[in-house]
Amino acid sequence: SFLSRSLTECEKNYAQIEKELLAIVFSFQKYHNLVYGRHVTIQSDHKPLTSIVNKPMSKISSRLQRMLLKLLKYDYEVQYVPGNQMYLADTLSRAFKSDNQIKDDPEMSNMVHSITKYLPMSKSRLTQFKHETDHDKELQTVIKFVKEGWPKVATKNWSQELKQYYKSQSDLHTNEGLLFINDKIVVPNSLRQQMLTLIHEGHFGMEKCKQRAREIMYWPGINRDIETIVSHCEICEKFRRSNTKEPLQPHSVPDRPFEKIGVDIMEFGSLNYLVVMDYYSKWIEVSELVNKTATEVINVLKETFSRYGIPNFVVSDNIPFNSHVYIDFAKTWDFEYKFSSPHHHQSNGQAERGVGIVKTIMRKAKEDNKNHFVGLMEYRNTPISGLNLSPAQLMFSRRLRTKLPVTNKLLNSEVVNNVKGRLTKRQQIQKQFHDRSAKSLSKLNPGDNVRMQNMKNKTWEPAQVISIDKDLRSYIVKSESGKILKRNRKYLIKSHGELNEMSDYSMSDNDNSLPDNVIRSTNGPTQNKCITMNDTNVTTTRSGRICHKPRYLNDYV
């Protein structure tokens, strides 16, 4: 037995895969008494049908959903058979009899027309989509293939976009002149930039924008285009989140006490203190400062060095240690120095840790109405966690006598061996825990356009990399105002924009507005007292200060 019928005018506009599935629905409805309750094998020369009938309902178009719902009560499987082996069915399909009595399925028509009727767009937008789809040669080729059938093999002269549509041919269908992939509308090429702007109108990140677009629209390469527009958005760059921490770069473990120290200035109770912490023994020295000038700091360091000897290496922040007086002191006393990156106190973590310990001791001593030196003594005599040796034992190879009762034997000197190995192992464990949530940042090169984080409001400002600092994680950058600054990689992100310089001048080393950030000036010292800029009413002093002509003088020639 066999049967056939012609297609209605509406059905002629179906996609090829929809026509193939329509034939199966028609045959099951006619042979219901024969196939219901039996396992039926369907042979089809349309290979995409074998996969479409096994797809989840949510992954296919509404028209196909409606057809498959009608087949749910049947037990069937679809097998692919080449058309040249299906002699009878192929012959009958070419010799159908026109039947004007065939009418469209009203349920199918209502279901399909609801796609465009309830599209979340205005009539003008819908008209725009139809017009641009009609004038898009690529989409018109796809629509033609959808209606008439796709070639068995993609040809070499096809564009990359057409090849992408070919891979998704089983999900494509048309409705009222629009192309859909499942329930998502395919955007014509001329409207894609406009859609990208609307997708990123809320300035969300890449993944959020992709998720939003993935629900409602499609075109080949949409993910790549979203990544491009988000990464080039200046507003998103300006208000981007801070970088994640990088893997820990620990300092090398010294071979002996006071070989390497970290120094920092702290304030407590309206007084200034210089904190010195030994990298080897974790011994802390605290000295009160009269002021925070380089001369006062040097005098305290000389006193400390006279007790413990001159270290080989001193790590510190910038101010006031980057002054010429301090650098001359380092040369005279024969020790090396290293400055941490501005705002990146982790690079001087040992001294920062010492400051935290001292402040905690002082707060508790003040609350208890006691002297903080007792707390310092107890700290120096308490074993370090994970090492079971106190700073005093590492520093002097003996314990300190305190108010607690102790035998003479425990106060005797005892040389401690393999301290460096134990310190190295402890450091490796700390690095392992730290690096669990760390992420390496890509290297920057001189000339790269970047954005530099403003530490006050946490926004990102345009800058340009001039050179790489010697510690490899810091860079010398030029800000939009012309300042030359040193910044850690954590506070820099690569930018797709260009640096727009506001002026040709730069701040000098002696400028007090940002003393810890300025490394050097782009311009050498000038012989003139004032540098006249393009505007005759504006001058710049040697220190970088801008002088404006008073407004009341504008009335005079």
UniProtKB/TrEMBL annotation:
Gene Ontology MF terms in the entry: endonuclease activity; hydrolase activity; nucleic acid binding; RNA-directed DNA polymerase activity
Gene3D superfamilies reported for this sequence: 1.10.340.70, Ribonuclease H-like superfamily/Ribonuclease H (3.30.420.10)
InterPro entries linked: DNA/RNA_pol_sf, Integrase_cat-core, Integrase_H2C2, Retrovirus_Pol_polyprotein, RNaseH-like_sf, RNaseH_sf, RT_RNaseH
Signal peptide: none
The EC number(s) this enzyme carries: 2.7.7.49
GO biological process, one term: DNA integration
Keyword field: Endonuclease, Hydrolase, Nuclease, Nucleotidyltransferase, RNA-directed DNA polymerase, Transferase
CDD domains: RNase_HI_RT_Ty3
Keyword Nuclease included in the entry's annotation: yes
Domain (Integrase catalytic) ranges: 253-413
Gene Ontology CC annotation, any one: DNA polymerase complex
The keyword Nucleotidyltransferase belongs to this UniProt entry's keyword annotation: yes
Protein name as catalogued: RNA-directed DNA polymerase
Annotated source species: Araneus ventricosus
Gene: K02A2.6_270
